[in-house]
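Supplementary Methods S3. Complex input for the adenosine-5'-triphosphate-bound model.
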Amino acid sequence: MALAVSCRDLYKRYDAKKKKPVDALNGLNLEIEVGECFGLLGPNGAGKTTTVEILEGMLKETSGYVEVLGRQWNGKDDDAIRQRLGISLQETRLNEKLTVRETATLFRSFYREGREPDEVIAMVALEEKADAWVGKLSGGQKQRLAVACALAGDPELLCLDEPTTGLDPQSRRELWDIIREQKSRSRTTLLTTHYMDEAQRLCDRVAVVDHGKVIALGSPSELIHQLGGEHIIEFALAESNGQTSADAFTSLPAVSTARFENDGYCLTVTEPHVALPALINKLESDQLSLARITTRHVSLEDVFVTLTGRHLAAEELDDTL
Ligand SMILES: Nc1ncnc2c1ncn2[C@@H]1O[C@H](COP(=O)(O)OP(=O)(O)OP(=O)(O)O)[C@@H](O)[C@H]1O
Ligand SMILES: [Mg+2]
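Predicted complex, serialized as structure tokens:
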């Protein structure tokens, strides 16, 4: 198994004058195989961008071991890594005084081999804007241009830090196609995203990062299976019923976990056809009445909430995408 990325025991401390240092990474371990689409998931401040920027050679780790495409950022191999790497940063800082084509041409010039400027512009559907100033592009268009620049060197490892945040559904789908194409050519993609369903659709494996550490690792379906059930029953009790502890529902047949959040309960269940009648019976015998009830499939969002007790606070994508 060839590795595109390997890092062990990665620590990063941001020191600031007169301020408490921030320990952004606290012993993070990661191995990404060549040809994988790998997702880094986690809430704001988890350490995703810090990790990606260390892998990209833009930031120096405080301690730990980092290997990218079989080499280390040691000064000697830096250019060799850069030639095989495509990067799109979370916050794009492109020169506003260049046109789209000039920007793509500039990035192409950084690489000995790669894709022609018009080709990458077409890949992100910016042909109509090829002669427009970068400063006149919309936020989503700038982001797409940043991805085009990341593709300029036809990279073996494509690192995209939240590439789809703020994109319209059509542009998001086009970006997914770019990532899938990368995968079809056995090239590696490292992606950070807050969209759980995006990770589920695209990623072979994901690492859930929290407080600078990987707290869960596996394929989306493996992580979902670890929850102990593939279905969720969500329900709320009528207000007149008062508060019932979520623990009261964990002993029901086919229920693996139960939690209370916002104004309702969320049960992870293995067999909805067993759990649902049992739940209805219990509510009846306890003289509790329902305000609403729905069932759905478990998502990576549920995995995250179960692991951390917090939501990732991302809007769900339209199922029709
Ligand atoms: N230059 C910096 N100086 C000081 N602290 C920093 C710096 N950059 C990041 N941090 C801190 O490091 C932690 C990790 O930040 P990072 O940007 O890696 O998170 P993230 O997972 O990418 O979050 P987001 O989802 O918001 O993009 C945060 O607490 C952040 O405030
Ligand atoms: Mg980030």
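The first strand starts at residue 3 and ends at 16. The pocket of magnesium ion (ligand 2) is lined by residues 48-49, 90, 161 (CB under 6 Å).
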